[in-house]
Design a protein that fits this description.
37 helices; Beta Polymerase, domain 2; single chain; Four Helix Bundle (Hemerythrin (Met), subunit A); 8-stranded antiparallel sheet; alpha+beta; globular
Amino acid sequence: MTVSSTPPTSVESLHAGREILLAACSKSMPQDFSQRMYLLVDAYFSLRLEEAVAEGLLPSFDGISVVAVGGYGRGKLSPFSDLDVLLLVDSPKKLNLEDLAAFLFHPLWDLKFEVGHGVRSVPQNIKLAKDDFKVLGALLDLRFVAGSEIPFETLSAKFKEKVIPVAGDSFCKTIWDNRCAIGVGMDSVVLEPNLKNGWGTLRDVQFVHWCASIKGDYFPLSDDDLADLLKDEAFLIRVRSALHLVSGRKVDQLDIERLADVASLCSVKGYSPAKRGQDLLNELHAAMVRVRSLGNSLYRETFLRDSLNFISSDGPVTLKSALNLFEIKSYSGDPLTRDTRRAVAALDDISDISIGDALASLIKIFEGPFGWRASLEILDSGLIGSFIPAFSKLVALVPYDGYHKYPPGRHSLLTVHKCCDIFREEFEPPDWLENEFEGKIGDKFEGKVEDKFLTGTDLDILVLAAFFHDIGKGGRKHSERGAEITAKILSQTDFPVEFKEDILFLIRSHLLMVKAARRIDLSDVDSLLEIGRKVGTPRRLRLLFILSMADSMATGPRVWNSWSESLLRELYNGLNHVLTEGDLLEVDSTQKISATRENVKTLALDVMGGELADAMIGAMPDRYILSEEAGEIVSHMRLVRKFNGAYEKDLIRKPSGKGGKGLNIVDVAEIEDGRTRLVIISRDQDFLFASQTGVLALHSINILSADIFSWSDGTAVNIFTVKTPPAESIPEDLWARVERSILYAMTGRLSLDYRLHKKRNSLFARLNSAKVPTQISVDNDSSESYTIFEVKTQDRSGILYDIATTFSRMNIDLRMARISTTGNSVFDVFHVENSGWGKIEDREQVNELIGALEFAVSNS
């Protein structure tokens, strides 16, 4: 038996080499992966060109260069990176370039490489580079791979001679402008960064190299800066390569779900996946901050040096002088020089200023016109952690909750920034008032203006409360823990006692309004009274409202939207009314109910007879009267009258016992900000609400809240607030289909269990699932009339249907549901009662319900 001595072809060598390299990554991503990867591809092109000559596609290499550009040109390849290749030719017309390109590139496509290629002459490249900055950027990363070096050297020389002098500065400015647009409104790192094009990542690294290449040096960066840049670049590439392998494809967004696996491939050690992920992300964030800072310094101090004023420091920097520098930045917007940034980062003298004076300086920095950017820079410099070590611990945390967008340190600073914005937009006294009464608002307008505005001291309180509000994170009951940590810090200051107490109150209570807005019945006066007692005064309510709004905004779009804002504002208005009406105990809903009934009666007489109006109004429950405006109630009465007419006809038309079953009327009104209000009129019957929620889920309609009202005459008025479906996806008869489907579900002609099972087990649903642990809590204290169930679990199609069906099967009446979806999880609140018996206070029954709900949400 003879063994073939034929050497492997270019394609075989590349395929085998890549398989060996990827196999070496099974447990750890090699530090030199990108280098080994690009050398494999280089070897392929060198051998492939030789094969092209051998097969007669080329007479020789003369006049042809294979040139790498982009990431391949930089030698920075991840497992599934694109290969950007330029086939550079002297005389395109003399060669069969189409066949040559196919010979070179088709095997790469067969091996699943993503290849971008161009075939051009030197003059064509020069012309394109002058007109197209994308081509210019690619040619900045030019690297010879195979063939003749003459075309490559010619292009390199002419590019430096004819393109860089005329287009280089404009290219850098364009990249700078585009770069500045990334992260507008939140100019910082995020918890799920884009490793290629995100803030402070590989595109920013390349920006530094491009600018230095165009201007000829890396000034004002030091040797240490350049060493950090190269180290951070290698780290970013390694993390991106690990992300590709974990994902099995080209992915640049490092999401929380993949974080721990990527960390393991990058050899990050830790006692748990969460710890490994946290350590990797902290290292990644530090690298991103350094990279961004280096790019800012290089461009500003080179290309903008004549148009900017720079802040610099002579001599050693202490904590006091560093804070003074950032105060100047906060009020001028001017950048610090690179030398000054290095001096601030290296300071070790924090003894020249008291903690109270340091916090007072922070307040000035945060409240300045450019306080937002100054606060980010002071955070990134490490200055805050030098005198508040607890804040450094907060910065190092990674929230795995699925809805925070930013790391805790940046989240806290964004909360400060949003507090300042809300204060100035809604609660700052107008200039004429301050000027006329010298800031003594209450002296002249007590009980009027004072109930609306806040003072400059109040803003100081808000700023510090926002800054410290999450400092207790990392353990249970972080609000209480944060207040304890902050109290120790404030005890070292000479701030007034009332000033400190307000800050600690806000930290302890910063989740109070957010939780209440999504869990209490806002028409329940007793619930409002209970929260009002905890808040205490209208002034504290305004402070807490601002902090609650700002904290939610800073958390991110998975928490803050028009719906959550409307709930929070509705709660604020209700509490403000309660707190400004005098003695809380004298507030009585009886008068409001009586007045609303009279108002409804007056309005209803315009559209129906008095006897019918009296009968309907008499059947309405008090909670319904408190929840709805008089005009809305009258519109519902008209719908009920229409429904009753159809119901009576259905009773006559159908056999005994079947008439009227499942019959319903769906009325639709778009509210605002992407919300639609559905009013569904029917006869009260078993599984009615469950069927309605199941049908809405089947039609991909997202429910935000639901109020369930049962009139004493058997009428069911269920009111849903839903997210308005996109216009392009709404069939003209969508709501007619919903109405018909509810009828079919209630009469056995539509199996919601089967249909929803198919919907939630579709390929798309399975691909987008993520495990969220189920948590169910029960509260019998917050509401006078109802038991409150809170269910946090993994989101999926029909989850509300499963919960509502469980309650119905357990003979539990649902009165209100409020739905909150954040990422892959849902947080639903249900106000329920034992059918005909009020609250559910039997412990065994409560436990049985919890078990049934856990089973329902975990078995789809």
